[in-house]
């Protein structure tokens, strides 16, 4: 018999448990071989990440489709943030981190010499777990990035919008805040310090700030984990809308959230391995891996 079934795997006394509580199983390559319509926006091939001697991410090969929401789930320490950071070379900022393998953005290798990291991180933007607005006005939080990139002065925004009859900075601020579903709440206090906003508002401001430099991909690391249910639901609606124009990759510990907002889900498990990757419905309703099923149903992790 060549195929291993779930029941065969769990009926021995010698079953080994990891610290996260999962048992050992042989991962099948077909479990991560996700086929989808359309173009891949980001692709990793044989990606390994080490922190010193610690091998945090092992041989991850995955294609992320454009203009959709991809959820990354798995127990704490399995490498989700590490993987997310490898997609815009944020791991470069961690001294002990070393990356082997390939990541391609629109088919172009990002781990090669001569890559402009500022440009890369502008096109592949990131939103973090705790909102981190600059201690400046709401207005300045939005205009900071485009000014840094020279987009306001060089007229990029006017070209994008196909008009030049308005104050570009004002229009950029309004457009970004509207896209992030924050405009109505802050329109009359744009000059107030951003740190005076609520947590949920600060997070939407950070999303607006990310959008203001006209990215193509938005990476989000547990963007709603510190928010109450109403603020969370606003962020979820926003992510859903953003996927019409952007490629969104989101890490979440909230299974219902992953099931609600993502088109496809990648499950990482202990040891930094991608175990299963498929349509979100398939992952949540009928996963191939017993460990993935156990994780999703709350048996460990
Ligand atoms: N800056 C770092 N320096 C050293 N080791 C790190 C660093 N960041 C992560 N690691 C290690 O890499 C492994 C993966 O960590 P990572 O933060 O990617 O996990 P995660 O899946 O995002 O976990 P969580 O759900 O808790 O956020 C862990 O063993 C962690 O200790
Ligand atoms: Mg993390």
Level of helix content?
A: 25-40%
How many helices does DSSP assign? 13
Q: Low-confidence spans: pLDDT under 50, at least 5 residues?
A: 1-13
Ligands in the model, by name, code or SMILES, are: adenosine-5'-triphosphate, magnesium ion
CATH homologous superfamily?
P-loop containing nucleotide triphosphate hydrolases
From the spread of the alpha carbons, the general shape counts as globular
Number of strands: 10
The arrangement of helices and strands along the chain is HEEEHEEHEHHHHHHEHEHEEHH
Number of spatially distinct domains: 1
Beta-strand residue percentage: 15-25%
Mean pLDDT: 89
CATH architecture descriptor: 3-Layer(aba) Sandwich
What is the makeup of the main sheet? Answer: 6 strands, mixed
Largest sheet: spatial strand order: 6-7-8-3-9-10
- Given helix and strand content, the structural type is alpha/beta
Q: The CATH topology, please?
A: Rossmann fold
User: What's the oligomerization state?
Assistant: single chain
Write up what this structure looks like.
- The protein is an alpha/beta fold and 301 residues long.
- The chain has one domain: P-loop containing nucleotide triphosphate hydrolases (Rossmann fold, 3-Layer(aba) Sandwich), CATH 3.40.50.300.
- The chain is 35% helix and 22% strand.
- The protein has a 6-stranded mixed β-sheet, with helices on both faces. Strands 2-1-4-5 form a 4-stranded antiparallel β-sheet, with helices on one face.
- Helix 10 (229-242) links the parallel strand 7 (217-221) and strand 8 (247-251).
- Helix 4 runs parallel beside helix 9 and helix 7 crosses helix 9.
- The structure holds adenosine-5'-triphosphate and magnesium ion.
- Magnesium ion (MG) is lined by residues 80-81, 221, 251.
- This is Phosphate ABC transporter ATP-binding protein.
- Residues 42-296 form the ABC transporter domain.
- Pfam families: ABC_tran (PF00005).
